[in-house]
Amino acid sequence: MNRIYMDNAATTPLSSEVLAEMMPVLTTDFGNPNSLHSFGRDAKQYIDIARSRVARGLGCDDEEVYFTSGATESNNWAISGIARAYRHKGNHIITTKIEHPSVLETCRKMERDGYRVTYLDVDETGLVRIDQLLHYIGADTILVSIMAANNEVGTIQNLQAIANIAKEKGVIFHTDATQAVGAINLNVHEMGIDAMSISGHKLNGPKGVGALYVSNRIIITPFMNGGEQEYGLRAGTSNVAGIVGLGKAVEIATRDILANSKKVRSLRDYFIAEVEKKIEMTYLNGHSIQRLPNNINLSFGMVDGESLMCMLDTYGIAVSTGSACSSGSTEASHVLVAMGIPADLVQGAVRFSISKSTTKEEIDFVVEKLVESVAKLRKISAMQKSQVGKGE
Ligand code: PMP
User: Fold this and answer.
1) Of all atoms in ligand 1, which is nearest to the CA of residue 75?
2) HEC states along 302-326?
3) Residue in 175, 173, 132 with CA at minimum distance from that of residue 156
4) Does 295 sit in the ligand 1 pocket, CB within 6 Å?
5) CB 117 within 8 A of CB 111
6) What residues contact 69, with CB distance under 8 A and at least 6 apart?
7) What is the pLDDT of residue 325?
8) What's the pLDDT tens digit per position in 54-63?
9) How far apart are CA 124 and CA 115, in angstroms?
10) What is the mean pLDDT of residues 314-322?
């Protein structure tokens, strides 16, 4: 069976160009970048090149890029490290209700440590209301952390407006750009973003590696102690191959951003139009325009999203309900709930995340199987309802 992968928001395959860059480091050039001999110097050079590539992709200086184990770590570090460094100025953090758990859980931890956290509402499209942000920023606010684009519904925030407000109010602005890099243009210096998290495996790079950009204008406390790596702030022998892969992945993603996003966006719009034409009671979750080019989050009335996901899996089609991190649990998506989506449609939501490799033929096949599956599940649901009726 030919399998079709439409879960690129969960992870992406490693690109062959990226693998080619990583191979020497995984084989012959295996030195420890902290060693003083030639093997060590070679490894250090690989890291320097990767750091420059990431910096160029994000629009910052090399010294502002810190390699981490992924966006979970970058988010944990950004929030706890910045809040601690500025504790003398205040104890208030502002975030949103639709952040990734790595932000939300860190904020909860900060609350236990004595910080005050405001979790902003979003509107029905997933957008933060700028007037609300302004309303909550006070004299004790030290940090605003708002994601660039949501992993479940793909809504892209008004980042420039948020960055401008943070700057005006003298508050630090961190953004989780894990889903946004390579999809939308982000230049941290131009936009006035102070800190930003990214991850390799969402960009056709390797898993287990990411980066945190921290502006030279701000300070952050160390995340790992016990070594001079990453300017003494994130100790531990560097994941050289992963870092090399991340550098190349960022370079490619930012290089090809225009062509890729145009292609993916038109496939996405075709997908949505076909489904809306062929399946009644289909609802698109998230913003209709301000959304990631590859994200399609749909709710189908009278259909359970998890059952639909499982049925599509039997045809070799990989999609997701909620985010990968929360799937497996039966908890309702905190993102859709925050957007005020009715409970039955939250239950019926399925995320299709396509990529530059997705073809029109694949979409046609998926739509065909979707039509069949939704019809089957609705029939079962109607039968179950009538059985319940008879039993009463
Ligand atoms: N933030 C967002 C928005 C994400 O989508 C993810 C991955 N699901 C993460 C953070 C965590 O990234 P990583 O897998 O690199 O830890």
Assistant:
1) 10
2) CCCHHHHHHHHHHCCEECECCCCCC
3) 175
4) no
5) yes
6) 208, 209, 210, 239
7) 45
8) 999 999 999 9
9) 29
10) 93
Query: Would you state the pLDDT for residue 322?
Result: 65
Q: Under a CB-based contact definition with an 8 Å cutoff, are residues 251 and 108 in contact?
A: no
Distance CA 76, CA 80 (A): 6
Of 158-172, 273-287, 373-387, which range is least confident? 373-387
User: How large is the C-alpha radius of gyration of the chain?
Assistant: 22
Among the listed residues 246, 228, 245, the one whose alpha carbon sits nearest the alpha carbon of residue 237: 228
> How many angstroms separate the alpha carbon of residue 178 from the centre of ligand 1?
6
Taking the C-alpha atoms of residue 189 and residue 166, their distance in angstroms, rounded to an integer, is 14
Distance between CA atoms of 226 and 21, rounded to whole angstroms?
Answer: 29
Is 147 touching ligand 1 by the criterion CB < 6 Å? yes
> Is there an atom of ligand 1 within 6 Å of 268 CB?
no
Does ligand 1 have an atom closer than 6 angstroms to the CB of 353?
A: no
**Candidate of 7, 75, 100, 323 to mutate for ligand 1, largest count of ligand atoms within 8 Å of Cβ:** 100
According to DSSP, the β-strands at 4-5 and 317-318 are parallel
Dump the DSSP string for 147-181: -SB-TTT-BBP-HHHHHHHHHHHT-EEEEE-TTTB
Span from the CA of 374 to the centroid of ligand 1 (angstroms): 30
* Domains parsed from the chain with CATH numbers: 4-11+257-389 (3.90.1150.10), 16-255 (3.40.640.10)
Element (H, E) at 289: none
pLDDT for 383? 83
**Which H, E and C letters describe 193-240, residue by residue?**
CCEEEEEHHHCCCCCCCEEEEECCCCCCCCCECCCCCHHHCECCCCCH
Ligand 1 within 6 A of CB of 176: yes
Average pLDDT over residues 203-214: 98
Q: What is the CA(100)–ligand 1 centre distance, in A? A: 7
Specify the pLDDT at position 1: 80
Q: In angstroms, what is the span from residue 103 Cα to ligand 1's centroid?
A: 10
